[in-house]
Model the fold of this input.
Amino acid sequence: MTIGKVAETAGVNVQTVRFYERKGLLPRPRRSSAGYRLYDADSVERIRFVRHAQEIGFSLREIGELLALRIDSDTTCEDVRKRAEAKRIEVEDRIRKLENMRDVLVKLAAHCETGKATSDCPILEALNEEQFSVE
Done:
């Protein structure tokens, strides 16, 4: 398959395919005599794997590690489960932080009186506070 066809089949754009190649997440394809990249069906599966892993929060570095685990004969499903569990904990921490941010924004907005000059804006004043924190 050409780069356009593999991108279309995998549901990404051509730049994404090239980006994954540069990051080492997709092996460099062989080239035709005319210099065109030629991909196989495994490339489509690998691109989909990367996309799905990104969708659930894995970084490109972590995805590279997961891909390496797939081909390591000494790796067990338990090794992969541990990584998934660590990612779940990280996601829960991010959710907690986002909820704190939301709560702070709700409180700040509740103190805002429309029509006041920005020099008296409680939101701007709060953001300027030395002890300001969302934690």
